[in-house]
Design a protein that fits this description.
- This protein has helices spanning about 5-10, 15-20, 30-40, 55-65, 75, 125-135, 140-155, 170-175, 195-200, 205-210, 215-225; strands spanning about 80, 90-100, 105-115, 120-125, 140, 160-170, 185-190.
- The strands form 2 sheets. Strands 5-2-3-6-7 form a 5-stranded mixed β-sheet, sandwiched between helices. Strands 1-4 form a two-stranded antiparallel sheet.
- The protein contains 11 helices and 7 strands.
Length: about 230
Amino acid sequence: MSDTEEFDTLFDDKARAVHAAGPVGYDEEGVRQAVRLFLKSIGEDPDREGLLDTPDRIGRACKELFAGLGHGPEEVLKTKFKVDTDEMVLVRDIELFSVCEHHLLPFHGVAHVGYIPSNGQVAGLSKLARLVELYARRPQVQERLTQQVADALMEGIEARGVIVVTECDHMCMTRRGVKKAQSRTVTSAVRGCMRDAARSHEPDPVAAFVIDAAAASRIVNNNNRI
């Protein structure tokens, strides 16, 4: 399956049609020209055989890499379901690929997304992966991506509580600068009743979330029965 096909499977027909056009306001020709200028500026010849088609390739690639730009979470969270539950819904190890906005180098890893429904209103499980993808497909920093997913889920389905943890490797840290190849960055965002649980004297549900999903669910529910 190609990168484009894999990306498309995350969206329903209407959302796929929107994302097929790439970022809102995307100027593919402008990207091609910028790549040629970049190659010249680093001392390369953009007209040599190996680089001749590079501006076209990057023009097409950026359309996929930054496809989330200009699109909002309402495009993927508009469908909800009624389920008789007030327990945590948890999707772990959602792959994410993004681009660091500081160096335009990739970072990649996984996201763990969990929430406690309000009034039995839940999102389809695939919607959590779509939400991560939406915010990853743009120039990003990991901290903001984590927060955006949590805030969008709180607002989009009116969840009682949300927890999002991301674990990523950053090429801007592993392949340049300090060059710490084994480093891994973990960020978290906790909202609603799950934030209240984190402030209690019980074990931190953020750590429990990453280590043991069942433990996290018990901690939160023991502290937030209403």
